[in-house]
Specification:
single chain, 227 residues, mainly alpha, 7% strand, flat
Length: 227
Amino acid sequence: MLQHTFEALQTSIENENDASIDAAKGIVECVCQVIVDQLDNVTAPLKPRDDATITQWVSAATRLLRLSDIRDRQFADLIKHHNGLAESLRLLRNNAGPLSHGKDGFIQALTVYHRRSAILAADAIVAFLHKAYMDLQLDPIRSREPWERFAEENALIDLHVGLLVDAGEGDPPTLRFQLPGGDELPINIEISRLLYQLDRDAYVEALNAARGAQAFTVGPEEKQGES
């Protein structure tokens, strides 16, 4: 969804379309929802209601990123200015965005300066939140980020943890992860499930190879019986 919203923003900018204002507001809200969903505490949630404004989403994301936990008064004022940008973007979208609400069919389009202002406001908010988000240490259990997001943690595991595979007859293979200190972390998993979860192309390639092997093992007599 985030990628689709960004593509809509790019397309509307290239076509000099006022829909870029709707897309600019939408991408800010989408980014805020990603941050809130990743960091919100279910026991004390800060997630706004479904009908919340963009300003409320930006405020929730800012609080969850702990950007307001600082004594510097000037920095606190800077955060408020980002909330003000979000509110201005909301009002501009409501008044001029062609995709959000039905508008007068003959209303005059905005100028390039209006569109540029909306996009720059969205860019300032997203850049501010994104930098803080990338500096956070996320919880791997709850995170929906891809494996690449945990590069430092991945390197640490790959350096210190080994892997052995036990393949018993009729049972799923057991992956035995050798932990530092001599302990083991066994995980039973079907080969098909492992391929499906890790690499869909490899899954399809293995499936085609298995189908070929299955066809090869079926003798002429069995084929006649099937027909």
